[in-house]
Every structure is written in structure tokens, then in C-alpha cells.
Amino acid sequence: MELKIGVIGTGAIGQDHIRRFTNKVKGAKVVAVTDIHVERAEQIAQEVGAKFVKTGEELISLPEVDAVVVTSWDPTHEQYVLEAINHNKYVFCEKPLSVETEGCKRIVDAEVKLGKRLVQVGFMRRYDRGYMELKEIIDSGKLGEVLMLHCAHRNVSSGENYDTLMAIVNSAVHEIDVLRWLLNEDYVAAQVIMPKKTSNTHEKLHDPQVLILETESGIHIDVEIFVNCKYGYDIKCEVVCEDGVVSLSNPSYSSIRTAGKDFTGIPIDWEQRFEAAYEQELQLWVDSVTADEMNGPTAWDGYVASVTTTAGTEARETGKRVEIKIDKCPDLYK
Amino acid sequence: MELKIGVIGTGAIGQDHIRRFTNKVKGAKVVAVTDIHVERAEQIAQEVGAKFVKTGEELISLPEVDAVVVTSWDPTHEQYVLEAINHNKYVFCEKPLSVETEGCKRIVDAEVKLGKRLVQVGFMRRYDRGYMELKEIIDSGKLGEVLMLHCAHRNVSSGENYDTLMAIVNSAVHEIDVLRWLLNEDYVAAQVIMPKKTSNTHEKLHDPQVLILETESGIHIDVEIFVNCKYGYDIKCEVVCEDGVVSLSNPSYSSIRTAGKDFTGIPIDWEQRFEAAYEQELQLWVDSVTADEMNGPTAWDGYVASVTTTAGTEARETGKRVEIKIDKCPDLYK
Amino acid sequence: MELKIGVIGTGAIGQDHIRRFTNKVKGAKVVAVTDIHVERAEQIAQEVGAKFVKTGEELISLPEVDAVVVTSWDPTHEQYVLEAINHNKYVFCEKPLSVETEGCKRIVDAEVKLGKRLVQVGFMRRYDRGYMELKEIIDSGKLGEVLMLHCAHRNVSSGENYDTLMAIVNSAVHEIDVLRWLLNEDYVAAQVIMPKKTSNTHEKLHDPQVLILETESGIHIDVEIFVNCKYGYDIKCEVVCEDGVVSLSNPSYSSIRTAGKDFTGIPIDWEQRFEAAYEQELQLWVDSVTADEMNGPTAWDGYVASVTTTAGTEARETGKRVEIKIDKCPDLYK
Amino acid sequence: MELKIGVIGTGAIGQDHIRRFTNKVKGAKVVAVTDIHVERAEQIAQEVGAKFVKTGEELISLPEVDAVVVTSWDPTHEQYVLEAINHNKYVFCEKPLSVETEGCKRIVDAEVKLGKRLVQVGFMRRYDRGYMELKEIIDSGKLGEVLMLHCAHRNVSSGENYDTLMAIVNSAVHEIDVLRWLLNEDYVAAQVIMPKKTSNTHEKLHDPQVLILETESGIHIDVEIFVNCKYGYDIKCEVVCEDGVVSLSNPSYSSIRTAGKDFTGIPIDWEQRFEAAYEQELQLWVDSVTADEMNGPTAWDGYVASVTTTAGTEARETGKRVEIKIDKCPDLYK
After folding, report:
1. How far apart are CA A277 and CA A133, in angstroms?
2. Number of neighbouring beta carbons within 10 Å of residue D1
3. Does position B1 have pLDDT exceeding 90, yes or no?
4. For A221, which residue in chain C has the nearest alpha carbon?
């Protein structure tokens, strides 16, 4: 008995997920797709033997759709998630859960009213083996209390539409989620430093940026966001504890010595770096839906990420330290 | 439409494969199992919703079994593989294909007579990302001709029944297969050196051993086999070419600095080290069976491995260089 | 013809330098020593065949003393350096040049008045092979403009007398000097963040601290100072440029695999880490004195370090960003 | 009081040593030089303020020469070493001690007759920090008994005159000395394997070669000698023990990430790799001569190296395992 999935949005990330459900994820198949780009969606539907439907709402209401995946344009996420909740269907939504904190809140409220968690947000770093090893060490207490985290989020290059705002809202949001998951605590303040700008990008983007976060217990976090670093896709996370340091590695499977250099390759993008995490994320989501018990990143996590990126944006605009105020967490998410 | 698999032999490796088919491999399910340990096999059958049958022959003949997996006691491999061929069913057989070179030959002959490849041998190293990267570099010619390979096969410890013979026949056989696949050429001679023996094992095992192989084009290979190295499961492969060196890495996902040491962990066994390769092996086998076109290690590869391990054994016993004579390869395998 | 050196102060660092001059530095010997701890100084004098004299002033005035090394109590540095300048003798002074910025200024003024550089300050990081490689890459322009530096200064543990003030004034001062030397530009602002405090130290020390510096061209620098990190002496410096990153390595000469770990050792203190840099520093100082032409860190560098640590201290006390105002650099130091 | 040194032979290595004695080695100076290339030697003499003399014999007999360094053409080593012994002067001789085993024996006999060790052979690997760390670990017994060593000796390229013979006699001789020093035991047999030949060299050289050695206690050693590896100067030594492995590192001081690669540089020659070892070797030699007590590699070590390289050569020529027979070691060298 395979889980029958409907996918709303067949852009790049939607296609990747469809490919994973079709070729890799055990116990699931895609049965319906939709997109405003009809032709592309119809073709994909045909390739994987799914039905094409005209709207997300229609897809959600199909009786043969057991669970929904939302990979549409960011501003439409909220409406589809709410609709899925209305139909009492599990829904996996790519980040952001909503482009507005209030939208995240509306989703949280809907789940709380229903009294059941149906939503998972696509924060896939939590499924990376490296981050999982970091969490295991931190939770073990072997290195004592965490004091500081030094992180970097580096992309080879960013597109034309990527602007100054997106460095925190679209890129650092991954660190914002995964670090509070690692630490089991929330942020209380944000600050943003704008270093000298690289000449390798356009006018509308100030790149790099440094986001500084402070947690409830006083842990200091700095996250460099540098989306035109040119040399590779490189994610760093160094956790400095009282009795030692644990750091994320860039996994390598072979190394080469030639022409005076001893080197390993660096991934060129997130798929190369995190493909296994994406597959694990979707496999475990399918398993948890099948078991009727959510265990991934929640709507609440989506809300907290939104509050934090909003504070980060204010901190960048004002150049000041901005306090982060998070509502009381409903029991549903504890 | 899932591929329906029957598994003969529910010992450790059989159980691992059943678990993989059940939880990880897309497009397959286990429908029948058998083992001479009836109780264990019955319990496993029940857990995964498969039928228990009394014999391998019965299992192979079941109409609902599309393809067969042989993970039984080594001396029984040949008979089940031949039986599967008789039933014109695809069969995945763990190494060794047969405990005798003549047995491997009989399987090859049966396939040749049938005119179709049905057999895949469980040489899973070919599916490891590290070895695949090595092969890509070698085949690209970027580093020139391969001249030498320095390899090591180290296990934490070996069991009571592991004896001097098995170092080559059961352990180095993995290198014997993967290295000729890497190099696209066969071996012409073997020599074995017996270094000082570790005190960390029993009487019946001389550990470590060094197997030296020479290929058709003159490439020199040394393989250290050390199955009681105590510190971890460690597989090394350094390929020395005319213009550079490419080496297998021990992938790590995090590193720790504490108590004066900067360290990464070492796997404790092959499952930790090669789990992704096992899953990939079985996934691609299922995909190729479904596509009705074998592309993994063949019965011929099983035969060549047997010829080579036999020569290695003679070399160890005589202390001499032993020539390796391989029959002409049938067209079916080219 | 060896350079005849007088050493003022025979505490730990003084003894280390005397040992280096005696056993390692070519072309120099220690001929006179002094210290307020008379007995210890007399014994050291005897061991190396030097004369013991009662005061620094007397030592400086000895005709047989060609050049002076000041390794006395920090608050006495200034007076001995000024006295050496009065006697027109070269003087190597351990950092700080003076405990007050005004004191550094007085030394600069004395040199400017004399019209000759006689003073070298003991900023030995500039002589470390790793930092020299970083400088070579930066200066080559191969990686484009420098945008950010992420640094850490970690000691195993600090003594009873090490307090909150010293993290910047005594520890980060090394980064303050070496980074502006690396970058060929000065700082314009400082900020200090106080993370969660480690439980592995005493009341009077807030450890760790994070010093954030901004340079003239807008380069962002963060320096973690953590003097009770417990695991080892660890100095990090990652230079993020437009087209790549260059990082300081912790040099290792061997690695070990045992008990499930693949590790290299971490130095326990600065002598283990920087011994070669200390020897190079003193050798080049002796060579430059012999050549009658200073080329190491100047009194001006000592002054700038003092201005910067003072701003860092104010930033820590106020929690605010503090501007760094440096006087116009005299021609003597350009 | 500096040790006054006479240098016989002002070719490349002679000049390097003169430079080290002049600029780096404490307590020594070069007072006399000679070479059959008179003009070059005269110029060097002038540069360092030494006397030029016409012959090695004359140099050795000069009353102002305290100790002799022999860096002349290999076939002349023996005569100068014997002459130095005749004059009861300490002599540092570059390897080989003599081009014939019998010549080494004559030197040993002369020392034994004199009853005093005057000779040190230039096996500088023993002074490399990496090898010293290996020895410390081995001697500590922490990893149990040594069972195997896997080594490689790789040069970027070899000159026109470097032929098949020299791979063992001139290159592997370094491993031959340093490994028996590491292990505290001698070799009993040698074998040589000739892998596929690189196309990056000339007719008279078969490159690479693999030298296999067996020690008294049964330790297996393989040494790859590859003097046209093109990519860098790379020395590997992996010591496999009962309870773990210790390996030589290629020390690096910085690393770079650019253009998809994470790399460290590889030295291009032995001076880059071993400069610190050369300096340490000469410093400790000067110290030991000054203390009138030799503690470096002896004439006996030079003799054993000669016996072993001779056996290696025979093994290469015959393709057979050749036993290594070493005379009884005189008490003088125990």
C-alpha cells in the first residue's frame, strides 16, 4: 500500500521531489500534480503516471490524494497548507511556510484548533548526517555546554533576482531552523553586519552579510551568508563547547594529488551536498504520514523561523540589535 | 508494480537485504523466504508479510517469485543459482558465486547456453561513491596511465571460524573484484607475503597477509588484509598514475577537537562504511531486473574472482609467484 | 663577531629568549641579564656565561651590550625602551610596548626625534610560516579582495590572575597586530560580544569573548578569544576573499588511527605551536640589528595595537561599537 | 668558541650545508673549502670568509680545521673519511659512506681500531619531526608490535643521469636507513617488483620500482620508489601495528578553497620538505662534536645501508628474494 501524493508546483524543487518520490522514496507514489505552467505540469504528470489537475484546491480535494506536497511560488504556500488542513490531509510544505509571520500564525492556529499536527516544513538540514552527528554530540553532554557557533552559508553564485533581503529570508533561514533544533532553544536577539561587498555580484545585492544571533541561554552565533563565493557550495558549522569543539565536515569520498596540490572536490550546489538529506527527509515524512504521527519540523518551527528572519531583516535595515519576541508555544508542539 | 523477491537464507546478510528491500529499495518487496533454520525464517517471513517455504528449490519455483536472492551458506550458492537459471529467473547471489572455480564455470556455461544473463554477484564495492569517483578519474585519463595500486582491507576483528584461507577467499575477494573493474583489465600473477603475525587473534589464522597482484598491462597491486586491526573498519585504495594519485577517502561528516586530539570517527564495520553502497546495489539490481537488462557484476566476474582467489591461495601455500590463467571470455559478457 | 645582548627580565619569556639566543640564534650571545628576582637572574647569568647587573638602566649603559631585550614586568617596558633609545641602542621589547597608549606615543616620539628606528615589538605571529603563506596569497591578489576574516584564539586554560580585561589586551592583541599586517590596513571600529560564560574558569574572567573589528576598507573581522577551551592551544584564521578562502592550518607531522579515532595531536601551548616563529623572529631581529636596519614590528605598530586594545576594552565595557582613531603615521614608519 | 669546519665538495649539497653553517647553525663556522671545480670553490670561500685549499687531504690536515664535512663526488667519500680518521678529526659524510660495501667496512675497521667514533653519515630523515613522532609512538609500545610498513618515496622528476640502479642506491637508501632506526632491527631479505613503467622518463630508468624488505622479527616493508611522479615531492610512511596505525603527514601551514577545490600545497623538493631536518641534523652534529660524543648515524649505519642496497640491486636484477647478511656489529656501535 503506497502513500498517494499530490504535488502542487512543478518548478525546480517540485520536480526534484517528484523524482525522489518516484525513484527513491519507499512506499510512496505521485498520483496528481498541478502548476500554473500547465504544459510543463502535464508533461511531468504523464512521465510519472500521475493525473494533472488545474488547481491546488482541486488537487487537495481529490479523494485519491492521501497527502499533499507544496512546492509552489512562495506567496501561495499558506493558502494550500490551510486548504490541506481543512481537508484534514497531511501536507509537506517547502520553506517558507508563509511569506508573512501572520500567515504562519494562521496555520499554527488552524492546527491547534484541529488539535492535530498535519504540517511538515521542508527544513532538510535536520536530516543531514553531519548535523545529526553534531546534535548527538551536543545532546550527549560530552563536550559540556554549548557556548558559541560559527557558521557559514556559501553558494557559488546567486541569480539576478536574488537581492539583499533574501540573504537572511531565503538562505540563512536554513541555519535559523537547524541551529535552534541543534540547541533546543530559541533566539532572543539578532544583529546584522554588512562587510565589504564582493564585486562578483549586481547592484541589488549586498553580499556577503553576517547575521549574529543570541539565544535564550546566551549562546553566541555568527552566520556568514555569502552567496557569490565562487569557489563552491560550502556549509560550515563549528560548535564551540566548554570542553571541546565539534564541526560539520564537507564529506569527501576521494582525494587527488596532482600538479602540486593535494585536494578534495567541493560540491557545486545544495543537491550535490544535501541529496541524501533530501531523500531521508522525504522518506521519513512518508513513513510518519503512513504511521499517522508527524515527527519533522512543524508549523510552529515555520512560525519561529519567520519571526527570526523578520527580526534579522529589521536588524539589517537599522544596523541595530533587534530583540526577537516569540509567542508562547502551544502544547500541540511540545 | 513491485518486483516480488524470494530470499534463500535468512542469516545476517540475508536479514540485512530483506530489511533493505522492505524499507529502502523502491519497487521491490520480499514475498517468500526460506532457510534451514526454520523458526528464524518463519519469524522473518511473518514480520515482512512474506511466505515461508521449506526449500530453496520450492521458493525458486513459486510463480509469484519474480526474482531470487541467494544469501545462504556459501557451499549452497551454486545449486540455487543454477536452479534459478533453470527457471529462467533473475538471481542475485552473494559472493562467492560458488566455492569452486568449476562451479562458477558451470553457472557461466548455463547462462551462455541460455544466451541470457540472469545472474548478478554481490560485489557491492562497485556501488560505493568513493570507488565510483576513482573509476571516473581513471577512465577520464586526466592522471595518465595507472601504474600501481596500494590497498588495505582492515576489519576490527574476525570470528573464531575465520582462518588463514579466508583472508584471500572471503576478504580480499572484494578488492579482487573491484580493482579489475576499476582498471578494466585482468590479473596475470599473484604472490602472497606473510608478515609478522598479530598477537590479537587465534591459532588458525595468520593475520595480516599481503596479496600482490600483477595485471595484464603490468600494473602492480598490493593489498594488505588485516582482519584484526582493532582500531576500526578501514578500506584504503591509492591509485598511483603517471601524472598524479587518486585515493579513496574514509568519508566523515563531522570532526571533534577535545582533550588534545583533533579527530574523526572510523566506522566499526562494513555496514557503517558501505550501507549506502549496499542500498544502491540492490536498488540498481531491482531497476535492472525490472528493465529486463542486467548491468551489475556477472557470473563471469564471479568466475574470475574464483580463479584469482584460488591462485592467491596457492601463492600463499607455496610462497611463490603463481600465474593466473583465465579462460576466454564468452561474448555474452563482453 | 656575535651581537652582544643584554636581557632585562628573566621570567618565563625572558628565559625562553635567553635559551633561544644561546642555543639557536646564529650570531648572538647573551652577555648581561638583570631582574628584580636577583637570585634567579644570577643563576641564569652563570649558566649562560653572562654578567648579572642590578638594574635595567645599568645593563643598558654597559659598553659591552650592543642591543637590549626587554622581557620584564609589563608596566616597566616603556622606561627601559626609552632608556635604550637614549643610549642609541637597538631594543627588542615584548608586547605590550607600554601599558598606556600615551607611553607608546612617547616611545614613537623619541624615535621620531632621533630620526631612527631602534625598537622592535615582540609580535611573533608575523614570523609564523602559516601567516606568511596567508600574506603571500593575499598580496598576490589571486583570490581577489579580502572581505572577511574569522579568527579564534584558544588557550587550554588561563591562570588565576588572568581577568576579563586581559582577553583583549593580552591575548587578542596578537590578532590585532598580525591581521592589520596581513591586510595592510588599519581598524576603524570595534565591538565586543560576551557569549555564555564557560564554567571552567573563575569569577574575575568572562570567557569566551568575541571581538569584532572593521577595517578602513570595510573588511569584517571576528575574533573569538577563549582562553579556557581545555582541548588545546588552537589558533584559527580564515580569510574569506572574493574568489576563494585561505585558512591557517594547525600543522601536524603525523597522524594516528586507534580505538575508532583517526586523529592528529593539538599543541598544548604557544611554544609548541609557535616555537619556530619565535626562533625566526629573534634570528631576523639579530640579523637586522647586525645589518643596522630594522624591519620587524615597529614602535608605531605597538602604538596602534594599544589604541585598538583600548577601543576594544571600551567596547566591551559599554556594549557599543567604538570608533578607533589613530594618529597620522610619522614618515619614519612608512 | 665556534667549531671550525672544513667542507670538501662545493656542489649543490655542499653549498646548502655551507649556507646552513653560515646562517643557521649555532656554534659553527666554515673556515676552509675545497673542490675540483676551483673557481666555484674559491668564490664560495670568499663569500663566507673561508680559506680555499687545493685538496681534501690538505684541508683535513689544516690545524685550524676542527671537523670535516664531506660533500664531494660519491666515489671520493671513502678516501676523505679515512683521511679524517687518520687525523683523528670528526667527519660528517653525506650518503653513501662509500660506493662499495667493502669501503664502508674499511671505515668501520679504522674506527674500531682507533676505538672511537668520529664519523656521522648524512641520513637526515632521522631528524625530521614527523619520523621522530613515529619513533616516539613505536617505542612507547602504545600501539603494540609493529607488523608492516607501507612507504613511498616520490620525486617530481629525475635528471638525465638518474638510472634504474639509483632508485634503490640513491633514493630508497633514505628509507633503508630511517626504517631500521625506527624499528631498532635489521633487514633479512629484499625483493624488488618492477611495475608498469611511466612514460614520463627516459630509456635508462625503469620508474617506478617497489622494494620489499623483511626484518629480523618478520616485519613486512614495502617502499614504492617513484622519482618522476610529477605532482610533488611526497614521502609516505604508514606504520601498521597490532593496535593501531601511525602515519607520517605532509605538514601544511595553510589551505585554500578556490575553483571547486579544497587543497593544500605539496612540496616540490626535499629542501622544501626537509629543510628543518637538515638544520637540526647539522646543529646536533655540531653540538655533539663540541661535546666530543657522537650520537648520529654511524659508519656502521652506512655499512648496513650499503649491504642492503646491494642486496636490493641483486634482487632487482634477478627478480628473486635475496637474503641480507650483515656482519656482527662491533661493540663500538652498540
Report:
1. 13
2. 6
3. no
4. C195
Is the pTM value of this prediction over 0.80?
yes
CB spacing of C264 vs B262 below 8 angstroms? yes
For the stretch C212-251, pLDDT in tens is 999 999 999 999 999 999 999 999 999 999 999 999 999 9
State the ipTM, two decimals: 0.96
3-state helix, strand, coil in chain B (%, to 5): 40, 25, 35
Residue C116 is predicted with a pLDDT of 97
Distances (CA, A) of A102 to A76, A109, A304: 14, 10, 11
The label of the residue with cell 557550495 reads A233
Instruction: Provide the domain count of chain B.
Output: 2
C47 and C102 assigned to the same domain: yes
Verify that D166 and D118 share a domain, yes or no: no
Residue A72 and residue A170 share a domain: no
Tell me the pairing of strands A220-226 and A209-215. Answer: antiparallel
Neighbours of C217 (CB within 10 A): 15
Distance CA(A199)–CA(A180), nearest Å, equals 33
Chains with ≥3 CB–CB distances under 8 Å to A: B, C, D
How far apart are alpha carbons C90 and C67 in whole angstroms? Answer: 5
Task: Please tell me whether residue A34 adopts helix, strand or coil conformation.
Answer: strand
C302 grid coordinates: 605597538
Q: Are residues D133 and D229 in the same domain?
A: yes
What phi and psi, each to the nearest 5 degrees, are found at residue D245? -130, 135
Let me know whether A180 and A261 are in one domain.
yes
Structural domain that includes position A82: 3-124+276-298
Peptide bond before residue C208 is cis, with ω within 30 degrees of 0: yes
Facing D245 at nearest CB: one of C134, C245, C257: C257
Chain C residues within 8 Å of chain D (Cβ atoms): 23-26, 128-130, 133-134, 137, 142-143, 243-249, 251-259, 264, 276, 283
Over residues B162-167, the mean pLDDT reads 97
User: Which tens digits make up the pLDDT trace of A195-224?
Assistant: 999 999 999 999 999 999 999 999 999 999
DSSP single-letter state for residue D330: P
Secondary element (H or E) of residue A191: strand A187-193
pLDDT of residue A1: 74
Domain with A245 in it: what CATH number? 3.30.360.10
Q: Which chains touch D (3 or more CB pairs under 8 A)?
A: A, B, C
Burial bucket for residue B100 (CB in 10 Å: 0-12, 13-18, 19+): middle
